[in-house]
Design brief:
The chain has helices at 3-12, 27-51, 88-91, 216-219, 234-240, 245-251, 332-339, 343-350, 357-360, 383-389, 408-411, 417-427; strands at 57-59, 63-71, 74-78, 82-86, 92-93, 100-119, 128-129, 147-153, 161-169, 189-198, 203-206, 231-233, 253-264, 275-280, 294-302, 308-330. By secondary structure, the chain is of the alpha+beta class. Among the domains are: 63-120 and 171-330, Sandwich (atp-gated p2x4 ion channel fold), CATH 2.60.490.10; 380-427, no CATH class. The strands form three sheets. Strands 1, 5, 6, 7, 8, 9, 13, 14, 15 and 16 form a ten-stranded mixed β-sheet that branches. The two termini are 52 Å apart.
Length: 428
Amino acid sequence: MGRTGWKGLCLSLFDYKTEKYVVAKNKKVGLLYRLLQLFILTYLVVWVFLIKKGYQDVDTSLQSAVVTKVKGVAFTNTSALGARLWDVADYVIPSQGENVFFVVTNMIVTPNQRQQTCAEREDIPDGICSEDSDCHPGEAVIAGHGVKTGRCLRAGNPARGTCEIFAWCPLETKSGPQEPFLKEAEDFTIFIKNFIRFPKFNFSKSNVMDIKNKSFLKSCHFGPESLYCPIFRLGSVIRWAGSNFHEMALEGGVIGIRIEWNCDLDKAASECNPHYSFSRLDNKLAKSVSSGYNFRFARYYRDQAGVEFRTLMKAYGIRFDVMVNGKGAFFCDLVLIYLIKKSGFYRDKKYEEVRSAEEEEEEPPGLGLSEQPASGPGLQKQPEQRKAQQGSGLRKGNGYVCPKRLEPGRARHLVNVEQLQTLQTVET
């Protein structure tokens, strides 16, 4: 490649290319183009703005607090406990009221247990023995109730027995009642107080009606017409979750109470309302040995001689999980940037404008091509010349130059060649 070629290649590196648009006068293509524009505009207006509220700012960092209380009493009369009245301090765990709490509905009670020796239950595989050597002293019974003493006890069966253990004796009763221990639990009431706050918009609200009449909470019950009464009947909650109280009270289960706060904060605060949904969270369809929900707890005492004993309770019941979710949407950014009096100030703070150094410099004053005079002295067209240009415009032999073959910026300065020759002769 010669020097000229290399010079042209280097200079071409500084060329600037710009886009050129062609307007196609085609009705079919133009109609298709407008239809696409209309479709996009409809999508933005209907879906993005009206349905999805795309113009709003959203706060999903919901702050929430839940306080729960259960009220109701039940009376039982059994051989293990005798006549007894049960109130909230007896059947609600934990008693302080949180977003997760447990209500006892059924119970197996083993009273007067003391730490002494007794035989392990026959349904514990690791407790089965045929001689004393099968029971290693000091070894805990796997999935059992105590520690082996080294003796094999054969009660009515000399070929097979169970290991003697040191445990809380007598051992827990195996069989439970066929009816719920606390039948009255179906009519217990649950008080759920929920406070929420959207910190981004400094908006707070509660699911309790803001009134000073305290008797309102003593008589109201939650329903479609009373969303701001946070008193729920326990049996109704179970029914709304699609379960049966009798079945669930016998074996226990888990109920989820979901409170949704999806608020459009462009509207009045009264339009921001809680929405409740209820569901059963444990696997109620799987009938297995692990179905239901239960746990054990004990209450300890001492007799007159100072010997400790306890009453063991295996509690079946319903665990309630209160879950709060929500989001708040507000028009704030659009208002801040475009609608208020000082919107320009906030818009400049939100968006930074960057310019190149050349744009900062002022251009020297002058006339562009479009500002050049279209005519001058001695260059006015004669009437016959204008008439001839309006005709063919492609004639060459009569002294006219075809304007279609020249650049548009220069076409306005063309004159008749014969007229120029005449002017030159006069000057001479």
